[in-house]
Amino acid sequence: MLPETAAHYTRRVLKNGGSAKKSLGQNFLIDDQVIADIIEKGFPDSDMPIIEIGPGPGALTRVLAQKIKRLWAVELDKEKVEILQKEIINKNQDCRLTLLHMDARQLKLTDIWGEEKGWLIGNLPYYITNMLLNHFLEQADSLYGMTVMVQKEVAQRMTARPGGRDYGILSIAIQLAAEAEILFDVPPSAFWPQPKVMSTVVKLNIRPYPGFIVDQQEYFHVVRAAFAQRRKTLLNTLAAGLKLPKDHIRLVLQSLNLEPNLRPEELEIIDYQKIVQALKRVDSE
After folding, report:
1. What's the pTM?
2. In the list 26, 112, 168, 251, which could disulfide-bond 20, CB 3.0-4.6 Å?
3. In angstroms, rounded to a whole number, what is the distance separating the alpha carbons of residues 233 and 238?
């Protein structure tokens, strides 16, 4: 049992000149119930290695450090690294927390836990959420999953199904790599300073996508082309994005029984794989 609330802890450790830096997108989680819910609903087996991204002054980290046998925390802000060292590591002889003062976008998980798999947890800075998600999805072989806090509208895009306006490249990238589940929303009042938007905790269980066999680079070349001008039809946007004649694209779509006037957001993940395969077949004929 911790002796002080998350809000009291955060105020205390920041009172001597500490601050939330807008340039780093810092909004610190200070709600004990939210912290408890993250651990209860989004937290895996404590025996696996865990890495926390953007711990800030450590309101969540100090709870994790009591439960996790192998815990790393990646923090870019030197001021917050010093707080974590003083308040969590120096005050706990048995603490198994390792601090990494670095940009999480440069982190290679194999440098942390080798060939093992672990779990990532974090309140992702909103201004680099997509970059961080993509960075760690590229390292999916090193992860069992992730529990991340993001803006609610990003969470909606992450979990969106085909046919809606939220469905796009991020939806496909996330769902190709993982089963995505929205756990709960977090109000602005759970943070200091308060953000202007609602946040959402999302759990990602990493797994291979059933039946996916094409090269990912080729696949996302087609997906990015399709969504580059999402208000246009699939025929027009693929022709423009792939720099191919419309007749060529029309032939590809017809071979798959896909209507040329479909919109990019109407296609399933596996439909884009079929387009990649059909493009190769048509090119070879």
Report:
1. 0.94
2. 26
3. 8
Q: Are 162 and 122 in contact (CB under 8 A)?
A: no
Best CA proximity match to 58, nearest among 3, 97, 109, 113: 97
Cα dihedral value 85, 88, 93, 98, nearest 10? -60
Distance, CA of 138 to CA of 218 (rounded, Å) = 15
What the chain holds in terms of domains, given with CATH numbers, is: 6-206 (3.40.50.150), 216-284 (1.10.8.100)
Q: How far is CA 30 from the centre of its chain?
A: 21
CB of 77 closer than 8 Å to CB of 25 = no
Angstrom distance (rounded) from CA 159 to CA 153:
10
Taking phi first (over 0 means left), then psi (-120 to 50 degrees means alpha), and beta for anything else, what does residue 56 get? left
35-52 burial: b if 16+ Cβ within 10 Å, else e: bebbbeebbbeeebbbbb
